[in-house]
Amino acid sequence: MCRQKICFLILLSLTLCIPLGASAEPIEDYGEAINQAGRQRMLSQRMVKAFAQIGQRILFANPREQLTSAIRLYQKQLNNLKSFARSDKTKRALLHAETGWKRYKNVADGEVDINSAIKLNGLSEELLQGSQKVVEALVQEAGTEKAHIVDISGRQRMLSQRMAKYYLLLSWGVEDSRFHGEFKKAEMEFSQALAELNGSSLNTAEISEVLEKVNKQWRFFQLTKLMDKGKYLPSVVARTTESLLQDMNRVTGMYAKVTVM
Questions:
Q1: pLDDT at residue number 68
Q2: What whole-number distance in Å separates Cα of residue 72 and Cα of residue 20?
Q3: How far apart are CA 88 and CA 137, in angstroms?
Q4: Fewer CB within a 10 Å sphere, N or C end of the chain?
Q5: What is the rounded distance in angstroms from the CA atom of residue 178 to the CA atom of residue 54?
Q6: DSSP alpha helices (H): ranges in the chain?
Q7: How many domains does the chain have?
Q8: Measured at the alpha carbon of residue 126, what is the angle toward residues 123 and 129, in degrees to the nearest 5?
Q9: What percent of the chain has pLDDT above 90?
Q10: What is its main location (predicted)?
């Protein structure tokens, strides 16, 4: 077989391995790379939360579409990051995350029931750790303290969905002695990071305005969440954490722009 034909077949096989609708889009700088890698952490938690919403028929913000969109976005951003990665450490971290993603996606694409939710939650912890390693590798690769603020802000998105995930699993009746502790830990970490962001010297007037909205939503969340004696308000928590997610996503995008690396 001639060399040209062999090369053509190799290129064709590689093209067929790329999922439809998930081809890579160029990432121009480390700020955006860390933004997208940080969003991967959030998606690992959001898909479980959407799963639990579907299971309880809490239809706020169309959880079925949330799940479908999150699956599509995770794959797309994974491709983006693989194209951007420059260091061997980042490439290894992405390969590890991709392996976990394949297992996770098989369950996320399946039937929604409590047993699948329990399995997906376990896989979400592995995927979160794998995605965190990618963020850490990119922050190190960027080699600047400015990368830290994008990381911290992006992590707030994940924590909003992590709190929602555990709350909705508990309200669905998925009892696990660790869930209450993990919820409280995420709650504490969100509060501490929010204080750090409020005091950042990188805050523009626009960033400060959105952060003030986050502060108000956070205070409302503290007042309205209910977890005592088996009583839950899953619809309220789904709404407040969605607002926190959307506002923190905006803030992270703005930090990524003012810290171009």
A1: 98
A2: 10
A3: 9
A4: N
A5: 23
A6: 3-16, 30-56, 63-84, 88-108, 114-142, 146-171, 177-198, 205-224, 234-258
A7: 1
A8: 150
A9: 80
A10: membrane
